[in-house]
Amino acid sequence: MHKKTTAAVIVAAGKGLRAGFDLPKQYQALSGKTVLQHSTLKFSSFDHTVIVAHPDYFDRIKEVLPGVLVVAGGESRTQSVFNGIKTLRNLSIDYVLIHDAARPMVTPAVIEGVLEGLNTAPAAVPVMRLVDAVKTVRGGAIGHDADRNALVTVQTPQGFHYAPILSAFEALPAEITFSDDIAVAVNAGMAVAQTPGDLNNFKITHPEDLAKAEAIMTEFKTCVGSGYDVHRLVDGDHMYLCGVRIDADKTLLGHSDADVGLHAITDAIFGAMAAGDIGDHFPPTDPQWKGASSDIFLREAGRFVSNAGGSIEHIDVTLICEAPKIKPHRDAMRARIGDVLGLPIDCISVKATTTEQLGFTGRGEGIAAQAVATIRRPR
Ligand code: MG
What is the pTM of this model? Predict the structure, then answer.
């Protein structure tokens, strides 16, 4: 089975202000970011992400989520989602997950569950069983028990095989609206897999929900890890530093592509997770890593963090060498690291220093790198 091409559509088109909010809820601040940023960053390992929003907020979104595609919403939620899905038409998407921007605390397990559900059915939805007893109410009076076992509540992300859900939306009359996207799939006769929801994956609706989310999100600790790496310089014509190819009259020697910068960052991330070092995860004795591009190691370290329910907050790396000059490549390096880890560029610092021609770096015998990773982990 080929690796599935995945896309996330984040639905943030609502402009309505409910009582108590001065801005739509998706733009409210939550633990140092906006609600929309949290929701979107949960899908950073996906191949494509589209945010559906009101054009009034495009600038605000692009400022905090550079590189993410933003399209305008429609008259109804159903039309907004259709606009998002249509945008992906030429990208050979296998699986599309549609997520409410107002659910910033969706967990990797919920997302993974939906993706697994799509291996068995063309649609999948996270469900929650009802815990409380359920009663009918008629004319304001409590009536009979409703059958709790016949009812579930559903959350997002709701997942779909791309081609059939696009057809299902295309077949809808323009004026019809549904409360969610699974309803569109059910309307089209698609089978739906039920996958596990999560209590914390609630939808922020009222100001007190925001306070509750803030309280849950601060049940985290901030951990800092450091990494250090050295590779030898030998005759050659190019090298990789922080994921960027640089033409030079030397190259770095190593089992993989010997990218000292990415190795130091990878080690810093494992350090912050107290999860050993790069050699434990990718043994140099393993032939599969021979000549490997080091962004593989970095991407896996990033996944290790998100699988543990954590998030990388900041990366700072210092390259120590006399040559090549780092400054002309610095922003490309930051962009590359951000791309691999799914982080905005303002969370990534690349610096360089020389050792005043002292020691092995000063003599040009090798390049060293040290890195610090700051990570939020569940307590
Ligand atoms: Mg190394």
Answer: 0.64
